[in-house]
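Weekly puzzle thread! Below is a chain. First person to post its structure in token form gets bragging rights.
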Amino acid sequence: MDITKKQREIRNLIHHELKTPLVPILGYCEMLLNPKFGQLNADQKEAINEIHQNSVQANNLINDFWNAQKLETGEMKYYFENISVDDFISQEMENLGPLTVQKKIEFTKSIQPELVIKADRAKLAEVFANLVENAAAFVTETGGKIQITGKSQDGFVQFSVVDNGPGIPKDGVENLFKKFYQLDTSHTRKHGGSGLGLTICRGYVEGMNGKIWAESEEGKGATLYFTIPKVN
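Winning reply:
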């Protein structure tokens, strides 16, 4: 998609104007929740937490629309470096640990040793965070399992995020990476989001010269795969 200078300016202005009011809202919420600024009663704390959570969600939605637009117009920049797969996955599992601990999810890895890939570290971390957060949203409240795997295959490292959730219907698998697609489209769906997360994952993975896909069977969990070029 070609984008004119005027369109870019308008898009950048909208992004800036949407983000600007969220900065003080998030800042003051964090300040009010800090005990050194005074104690809140239970109702006050609940209200501030609600404001903070919704502000974070709004901020994430703005970022999703911004990144999706940059991917669509080919403006996304990548900063490649050699990355040790096992070290990277260990760090990401530590970063995502609180999410899985909160839901009592069994979170494991199976990584072939001594693998090195060439990728954008920050974007790769976003891909893993999105896939793990999606899996965590759909596994059962008790007995949930998520496993990250990585193995060498035909000049690439093939990663997978495997869960034991309810699985994805056939039409869902086919549409999963389309823009604004939601597995649950009911008005009262439990799982929020812009419907752009997996579209952005696809854009990032393809921008790092890999590919991404899903395999699933209803009632038998889901596996999301992606590949990244390996450094020999």
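Puzzle host: Confirmed. Bonus trivia for everyone else. The longest strand covers residues 145-153.
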